[in-house]
């Protein structure tokens, strides 16, 4: 069989990434993160798009070099079509489309959230179908039943903020810079969850994080009124308490999904799956509940192009190609 050499490109948010995969084996994985957003306390779409324009060619070049491949050896180009920031998606997708057309090879459109799930197939151990995946990122919180590489059903999602947003917005209230998820994770390890924040009462497999955000805000307002240094004195305990609550919200819903479906093959994916507390909580379930758990390597949790190339490979095998005049979409539909 002819080699399937796929170039994956990811530009849905603030990371410009490219990876090369041959017959499902990863050869290179390059990510260029944008530091400019720290000063603004969040991702500024215009700043992100401009940075993608600067990074896209050097990042793709580096991915090909590290893989030891020439562009003429590529079989197809897979690129994130959405969901994400439209300006950012346009840079990556337009580049991928033009590159594919100039090389006369297929273009493959990838759904960013599917790609997060398929990160589990880059390396061993790989989950068996069907499995449950809790996909938690900066923009999404989803519970999925994954029936096959290209077939996944959403069984639960958030009514308001995403889990990553809950970390980032809480961090902002504590004076931490963006993205605050990794900082809360680090600080939480030095503290104890001594402050109680309420668990939202939302039915079945739905999530909600906006009530938590409001209760943290009111709690901090009340405490800092009399003690200006309350946050700095209690920072690690506050982080531990916020993180603990976010994790219990996620884990309780995950447990309910297992109960409802009877599926004990359970994975986590997306940026928040890098959280050490969540990873630990899932590992514990393997021991206490006999779940077969799957936790991605840290570099495959946050945005990367290896997962896009992986998704591209499965679509390539199915000859599921995108039209050369297809366009990216900020709110790309699920299937
Ligand atoms: O998947 P991702 O890289 O980008 C999106 O698709 O949104 O996820 C980014 C999110 C951010 O909200 C960030 O704060 C969060 O993942 N995150 C974490 C950790 N690392 C990244 N949240 C908690 N703990 C972490 N260690
Ligand atoms: Zn993502």
Summarize the structure.
The chain is of the alpha/beta class. It is built from eleven helices and ten strands.
Identify the strand order in the major beta sheet: 3-2-1-4-5
Largest sheet: 5 strands, mixed
Count the E strands: 10
Structural class: alpha/beta
| Ends apart, CA distance between termini | 29 Å
Residue-averaged pLDDT, rounded? 96
Task: Describe the 3D structure.
The protein is α/β, with parallel strands linked by helices and 335 residues long. The protein has 11 helices and 10 strands. The chain has helices at 45-67, 86-103, 112-118, 163-173, 181-188, 210-226, 230-233, 235-261, 276-289, 298-301, 306-317; strands at residues 5-10, 15-22, 25-33, 76-82, 107-111, 131-136, 141-148, 151-157, 265-269, 292-294. The protein has a 5-stranded mixed sheet with strand order 3-2-1-4-5, with helices on both faces. It has a 5-stranded mixed sheet with strand order 8-7-6-9-10, with helices on both faces. The protein is globular, with a radius of gyration of 20 Å. The structure holds 5'-O-[(R)-(carboxyoxy)(hydroxy)phosphoryl]adenosine and zinc ion. Zinc ion is lined by residues 112, 116, 137, 270-271, 303.
Which labels suit this protein?
335 residues, alpha/beta, globular, binds 5'-O-[(R)-(carboxyoxy)(hydroxy)phosphoryl]adenosine
What does the secondary structure layout of this molecule look like, with pairings?
Blueprint: E1 5-10, E2 15-22, E3 25-33, H1 45-67, E4 76-82, H2 86-103, E5 107-111, H3 112-118, E6 131-136, E7 141-148, E8 151-157, H4 163-173, H5 181-188, H6 210-226, H7 230-233, H8 235-261, E9 265-269, H9 276-289, E10 292-294, H10 298-301, H11 306-317
Parallel strand pairs: 1-4, 4-5, 6-9, 9-10
Antiparallel strand pairs: 1-2, 2-3, 6-7, 7-8
Bound molecules: 5'-O-[(R)-(carboxyoxy)(hydroxy)phosphoryl]adenosine and zinc ion (ZN).
